[in-house]
Amino acid sequence: MRSAQIRRTTRETDISLSLCLDGGEVGIQTGIGFFDHMLTTLAVHANFGLTVSCQGDLAVDCHHTVEDTGIVLGQAFAQAVGDRSGIARYGSFFIPMDEALALCAVDISGRPYLVFDCDFSSGRIGEFDTQMAEEFFRAFAMNAGLTLHLKLLYGKNDHHKAEALFKALAHALAAAAAPTGGAVLSTKGML
């Protein structure tokens, strides 16, 4: 079973997370409604089992909760894919969300990098600071060992923009993590 469980406690957050790349229960509780919705969307569209329980210093703002959740999810993803052998490695997907269109391309390469090309027109979506979208994706990519490109081609509604990005990531990750039964997909023989 390609899965991982991680508990990470700092002075700012206390996170318990369970991830299974082959499906399972989905239950998210971070204290930030819109972020819970996005993580649920990610899990459902990738067909991942994902449970997250996070107690964060939301009296300060949502920064630590969102970024630290990205760190822990990335660590769990890296553990779940293991040595990266026997997976497709690459995935990309376009997602239309009403008037918004987003693209995600991912390489489960072990070489973390993020390109994030998305502008939001408002500062918040519910209690979620829109600046934190990029911080989440960066923390996730760096800790998962992904080369991750996310681009919003167009859109007006910030909820739709963010949701299109998370759904595009979900489908690209599902494609890239799909089992192939082969060796590591690299001319080097390793990543």
TrEMBL record:
<protein>
    <recommendedName>
        <fullName>Imidazoleglycerol-phosphate dehydratase</fullName>
        <ecNumber>4.2.1.19</ecNumber>
    </recommendedName>
</protein>
<keyword id="KW-0963">Cytoplasm</keyword>
<keyword id="KW-0028">Amino-acid biosynthesis</keyword>
<keyword id="KW-0368">Histidine biosynthesis</keyword>
<dbReference type="InterPro" id="IPR020565">
    <property type="entry name" value="ImidazoleglycerP_deHydtase_CS"/>
</dbReference>
<dbReference type="InterPro" id="IPR000807">
    <property type="entry name" value="ImidazoleglycerolP_deHydtase"/>
</dbReference>
<dbReference type="Pfam" id="PF00475">
    <property type="entry name" value="IGPD"/>
</dbReference>
<dbReference type="InterPro" id="IPR020568">
    <property type="entry name" value="Ribosomal_Su5_D2-typ_SF"/>
</dbReference>
<dbReference type="InterPro" id="IPR038494">
    <property type="entry name" value="IGPD_sf"/>
</dbReference>
<comment type="pathway">
    <text>Amino-acid biosynthesis; L-histidine biosynthesis; L-histidine from 5-phospho-alpha-D-ribose 1-diphosphate: step 6/9.</text>
</comment>
<comment type="similarity">
    <text>Belongs to the imidazoleglycerol-phosphate dehydratase family.</text>
</comment>
<keyword id="KW-0456">Lyase</keyword>
